[in-house]
Amino acid sequence: MPEVFIDNERYEFEGDHMALQFILDQGMEVPFFCYHPSMSIPANCRQCMVKAGQYIKDDETGEYELDENGERKIRWFPKMQTSCALKLQDGMVIQTQETSEEAERAQKDTLELLLINHPLDCPICDQAGECPLQIQTYKYGPEGSRFEVKKVHKPKRVELGPRVTLDAERCINCTRCVRFTEEISETNQLTIVSRGDKNYPMTAPNQEFDDPYSMNTVDICPVGALTSTDFRFKARVWEMNQTPSIDITNGKGCNIDLWTRDNQVLRITPRQNKAVNDYWMPDEGRSAYELFNENRASRPSIKLDGSNQSNTSWNNAIETFAETIEAHSGDDVLVIGSPHASVEENYALNKFFNLLGASNARFTPHIIDGYGDGFLITDDQAPNTNGCRLLNLNETDHKDLATAISKAKVCIILSDNLVGRKVVAASDLGNTYTISFATNMTETAKASDLVIPITCVAEHAASYVNIDGRIQRSFPAKETKYTNRRLNLEMSEGRLDRYGTNFDNWVSEEHKVDCLPLWDFLNKLAERLGLDYHVNHSRTILAEISSAIPSFENVTFEKMDEQQGIQLNLDNQKIKQK
Amino acid sequence: MVEDWKSYEPLLIPDIPNLHKIDVYEDNGGYEAFRTVLGDQDKWSRKNVTEEVKAANIRGRGGAGFNCGLKWSFMPEPDDRPRYLACNGDESEPGTFKDRNIFEFNPHLFIEGALIAAYAMSIDTIYVYVRGEYIDWVNKFEEAVEEAYEKGYIGNNILDSDFSVDLHTTYGAGAYICGEETGMLESLEGKRGYPRVKPPFPAQKGLWGNPTTINNIETLANVPLVINNGAEWYQSIGVEGHTGPVLYGISGHVNKPGVYEYPAGMPVMDLINDVAGGIRGGKKLKALIPGGASTPILRADQLEGVSMDSNSLREAGSMMGTAGMVVMDEDTDMVDLLWRITHFFHHESCGQCTPCRDGTGWLEKVMVKIKNGNGEIKDLDLLLDMTTMMEGRTICALADAAAWPVRHTITRFRDEFEARCKKSVHAVA
């Protein structure tokens, strides 16, 4: 097998490899800026310099030639090589900054040069704390600078488009953003303008950078040149918690991270998953963070007189719920599951009401034909349509569902804004006693007789099946009134969570929503009704689903975590993919 | 060193009136080489043409001095992909203005050379990329191309053979970097002139990803001479290791600046004193930049016995480059000169690679400081250190081209630079 020698260690390799990626794959490090594994290699930042050469092989014997000391002879390449564009060859010798002073010097020089025209405004820069330029300067850069003349000045605070702001002085011209619009989103909206040290990325004259994926350029920008207009100046990276989750705004289920501070989600960034979204996500999914913070259903609401809702206690809500159920037979109750809710919620709700004699829950997919783009934006507007199908909920079209609602005496709706998406009119819900399990105060929740606030994807661990049949799960990122970050092992703890006190600016109770996970509420309701039903956690529900429904066989949270989601077989269930 | 240059008769641009007209060119033996090749394709198979040119060792006239025929032999075997010849007429290095004369006075010699090259490499499309500032010469050249099309030298089934080729002329928009061979390819494709990372080399992946050879205009103009007279004859012109006629572009403080054709290996002092009429105003020679602004400057005392060929110039501590000689008299201010050179490279850096983008700007800013009398001795050492930070660390050679003049001008004229700097306030041990 071909072999290479990196920092005096021998490695075997097969196929085509570039040195930088190979070194990174081995768990070692070489600093770099312009290289991105999913895009072409421009080799323009010149940061990943290594010293490279080749052991000389005897053509006849195929053995390495030795010098008088018995050491292998090396033919060094005449110049320092950028490892990102250096293709591995049998017998290649590579010395990184760890073993070669020349490589170390070259990397240090490049950093000094990168910084001479960089504004060094880290204290007011959003990127600080997660800035490759900052990190690598600390690790590999020079102690100071010898630059004592004037820096180049370039445009600042340029709104490239509705979501991205440019500070051209911070730009190090790595062209990642330009290559992103060329190669990934294929809108070609950005290019480099001007020449030499005056250049920076820009749109065509009078054009907006309104690429539906524009904010990915903010993520891949290795400095603070491109920043999110929305997130700018909101929070420091080190003040936030980063929690893995799933994008719930469409059917693709992009893997994401929720960034929270004081139990508010402040931004959403994509999390790499080669099988789903690679490193990217659509801009739409990023604005979803507002759903987790604002207009939340907090404390149960009840309609007492006419159409006015008012908050009520949990006890009263449970009592009212129970009395309503007791006053009606199972046949009068219509249960509507939701492609917007998780697998566990849909299953628990359906099972609970089956026990009470209601027929199988219905659901109606939320699909807008022609909305998708074949990449990460889908026609399907919900994260779990296939999950509902695999749970064998009764798939119903809009018309039939409206008819069923008009016939039912009690209608139970799981977080689905049926009014907002015009499946039914708010007035249609007036003829039936409507109970909504709601995360947000949507038109549907507002038109309901009883609103039970439940946790959203940012507050519970639950799984979702995307349009390709991949089941993936969320982690709780925000605390509710009834959860505690320190006691919940699934929740991440940031610096402020560990060391913050009530005297800190960013530690408060005010952003904790008064809601319960659906299954917890059903436990309380079962207790009141005297029903033999109890689940501890979404994990228990998934275990039950996994043993009850063949499609979910062997599906566990742990396995999903290990494999970044599990591909389910959609064919068994005769599910058409949309 | 060439001794008998006075008897030399120009070959590339002979003194024939109206030679740029195709009839005159034909009457003087023009397109004979191309006819010979196409007429006897057994003797002049594609391989034999390449071998002959390789044996003649035409050193590329664009600056790198690479064997032209050897470059041709790097082209892969023809497959179903298109193949291109990209002719580089973007000459924009300060001090270089030789290809202009070919476009003006003998365009058909170059066209003939390009056609033979296209034949030898089975190329079906030729692009001629001319410097944008040369718009008058672009127009002149396009007339010549039209004539060649009319006479059937370019087009389909040329001279009733099975060889067909097209020639397109295009021009740049004023960027030095588009004269870098892969920057030129990008520009030809209609993109920003960012030089490409090599490998892959243009012969493997050139224009639009297809096999491409890039030759200088003057280099290709030598090809018909080789075909007509043979590699051995070509080798007899000039000096060992560097043969053939060379267009010397002499500028600066001489009495008769201009483009002069003589064999490679001309004695430098003869070129300055005899050919170019000596230093203006009877002044003394101070320094010479032998081959365009990026080649290391030589002091007058370094020029003794030096000839204009790659070996002799390398021994003297410089390079042949494009043979665009910039002559400077005793009144020349070396600090101003170096500032102007750093200004040029700062202005022309494409901005792709960090060391060049930021380094060229830094060089110029420090030079401005020194020029204005605000420099310190430590700035000279900083400049020298910066040349190390830039050289050999970029995709193309522009950073090298910017670094060399700084390094060599400072080391070779250090006294002058120190005299312009402020006295150090620190005690010197």
Task: Describe the model.
The complex is a heterodimer of chains A (578) and B (429). Chain A folds into 3 domains: 3-112, Roll (Ubiquitin-like (UB roll)), CATH 3.10.20.740; 117-228, Alpha-Beta Plaits (2-Layer Sandwich), CATH 3.30.70; 301-460 and 514-573, Rossmann fold (3-Layer(aba) Sandwich), CATH 3.40.50. Chain A is 24% helix and 17% strand. Chain A is built from 16 helices and 25 strands. In chain A, strands 1, 2, 3, 4, 5 and 6 form a 6-stranded mixed sheet that branches. In chain A, strands 16-15-22-21-20-17 form a 6-stranded mixed sheet. Chain B folds into 3 domains: 5-234, NADH-ubiquinone oxidoreductase 51kDa subunit (Rossmann fold, 3-Layer(aba) Sandwich); 237-329, Ubiquitin-like (UB roll), CATH 3.10.20; 334-420, de novo design (two linked rop proteins) (Up-down Bundle). In chain B, the strands form 4 sheets. Chain B has a 5-stranded mixed sheet with strand order 8-7-13-10-11, sandwiched between helices. A 4-stranded parallel sheet of chain B has the order 3-2-1-4, sandwiched between helices. In chain B, strands 5-6 form a two-stranded antiparallel ribbon. The interface between A and B is medium-sized, with 38 and 32 residues.
Strands, helices and their partners?
The complex is a heterodimer of chains A (578) and B (429).
Chain A: E1 3-6, E2 9-12, H1 19-25, E3 49-55, E4 74-76, E5 81-82, E6 92-95, H2 101-116, H3 132-140, E7 158-159, E8 164-166, H4 176-184, E9 191-193, E10 200-202, H5 216-220, E11 226-228, E12 241-246, E13 255-261, E14 264-270, H6 283-287, H7 289-293, E15 301-305, E16 308-311, H8 314-327, E17 333-336, H9 343-355, E18 362-363, H10 385-390, E19 394-395, H11 398-407, E20 410-414, E21 433-438, H12 443-446, E22 450-453, E23 463-465, E24 470-473, H13 495-499, H14 518-529, H15 538-548, H16 557-563, E25 566-567
Parallel strand pairs in A: 1-6, 17-20, 18-19, 20-21, 21-22
Antiparallel strand pairs in A: 1-2, 3-4, 3-5, 3-6, 7-8, 8-11, 9-10, 12-13, 13-14, 15-16, 15-22, 23-24, 24-25
Helix pairs in contact in A: 2-3, 8-14, 9-14, 9-15
Chain B: H1 22-27, H2 32-39, H3 46-56, H4 68-72, E1 84-89, H5 99-105, H6 107-120, E2 125-130, H7 135-150, E3 166-171, H8 181-188, E4 212-216, H9 217-221, H10 223-235, E5 238-239, E6 242-243, E7 245-252, E8 258-263, E9 266-267, H11 268-275, E10 285-289, E11 298-299, E12 307-308, H12 310-316, E13 324-329, H13 334-348, H14 354-371, H15 377-390, H16 398-412, H17 414-420
Parallel strand pairs in B: 1-2, 1-4, 2-3, 7-13
Antiparallel strand pairs in B: 5-6, 7-8, 9-12, 10-11, 10-13
